[in-house]
Specification:
single chain, about 240 residues, alpha/beta, 7-stranded parallel β-sheet, 3-stranded mixed β-sheet, 5 helices, about 20% helix, DUF5131
Length: about 240
């Protein structure tokens, strides 16, 4: 089971992967300015309790963290220490924290972090070769116990040129959603999978995106089918060397 924990909402666009951000797209429907960052009512969700004293989020859940902002956003620096306190308290949960700001990872890092909390996975998001070359070396040099790569939205082919190894727990790939989505080429997806298989790194094709190019043809895929169509491709890889 899994839950979403959006401690704060709002973000600033910093790279090509942000151009058609789903948060901006959704907020625009309600006339909301997505660049305004604010704490949410769910800020303390992991430590909220029921009347009987039990945590509202039961033990064992996977918590997807800050998917409508960025955990390492500068505007959230004043709140991050408190967020880490809650994460530390709920060591019985598994937290997944994606970020495009891996260069800010050390800001307000807990003093007892060491080489990482066992129940926390940091997911570095990369969308093209430029960001791979910039973010991945930083990511691999940091004291992180569980490392994930989110190649979403995938905007071009990726060459990991030796940086993909056992330090990475899993690579997830997906195309861009929305009416303005840029094309995701299936050959790019397969080549990333090939690099994962060569290194024995688990690979997950998360979603096709709204425009998938395969064998030279562009397929327009409705949002409700983008995850199922990716699963039907049958190319996920569990990390077993072949």
């Amino acid at each position: 089971m899994s839950v979403s924990w959006n401690l704060w909402h709002g973000c600033r666009k910093i790279s090509e992967g942000c151009r058609h951000c789903y948060v901006y797209r959704r907020d625009s429907l309600y006339g909301k300015d997505s660049s305004v960052v604010a704490r949410t009512a769910a800020f303390d969700l992991p430590v909220k309790r029921k009347r009987n004293g039990d945590y509202r989020v039961p033990s064992g859940e996977q918590v997807y963290t800050c998917f409508t902002s960025d955990f390492f956003l500068a505007e959230a620096d004043e709140w991050r220490s408190e967020a880490w306190d809650m994460i530390r308290e709920r060591s019985d949960l598994s937290f997944v924290i994606p970020t495009k700001r891996i260069d800010r990872f050390g800001v307000a890092l807990p003093a007892d972090w060491g080489d990482g909390y066992p129940h926390v996975a940091i997911a570095c998001t990369i969308e093209n070769q430029e960001q791979l070359d910039r973010r991945l070396p930083i990511f691999k040099a940091l004291p992180i116990r569980h490392r994930l790569l989110f190649c979403e939205p995938l905007l071009g082919p990726l060459d990991f040129h030796g940086l993909l190894d056992s330090d990475i727990d899993e690579v997830t790939v997906g195309g861009e959603s929305g009416s303005e989505a840029r094309v995701c080429d299936y050959d790019w997806v397969l080549d990333i999978r090939r690099q994962c298989v060569e290194q024995g790194i688990p690979f997950n094709f998360h979603q096709t995106g709204a425009r998938l190019r395969k064998d030279g043809r562009i397929y327009r895929i409705r949002r409700e089918f983008q995850h199922t169509q990716a699963r039907r491709a049958g190319i996920d890889y569990d990390g077993t060397r072949r």
